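Regression test case RT-17, inverse folding.

Input:
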């Protein structure tokens, strides 16, 4: 019973870190490619990216999960690319939009 609670907590912590990481990746990309760049926001998102990657490489993360840090970073980025691809493909293009 306690092991299940530990597993649930570990999963929630990792899930939140992955979510924060992906959000920071996409928002840093959006802000960097915006003509009205907000350097403060870019620095904030880059800081979050670094913090998440440090967490994924930490001893604490290794205690929570035995997955390789490079693999979780790569999988997080691949999952984000898949989500963005789906979003782009959902955009309807018509002659009115061109």
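Golden output:
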């Amino acid at each position: 019973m306690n092991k299940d609670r530990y597993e649930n907590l570990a999963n929630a912590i990792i899930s939140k870190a992955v979510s924060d990481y992906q959000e920071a990746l996409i928002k840093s990309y959006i802000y960097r490619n915006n003509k009205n760049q907000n350097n403060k926001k870019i620095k904030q998102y880059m800081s979050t990216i670094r913090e998440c990657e440090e967490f994924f490489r930490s001893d604490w993360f290794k205690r929570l999960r035995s997955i390789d840090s490079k693999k979780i970073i790569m999988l997080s980025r691949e999952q984000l690319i898949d989500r963005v691809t789906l979003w782009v493909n959902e955009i309807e293009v018509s002659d009115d939009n061109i």
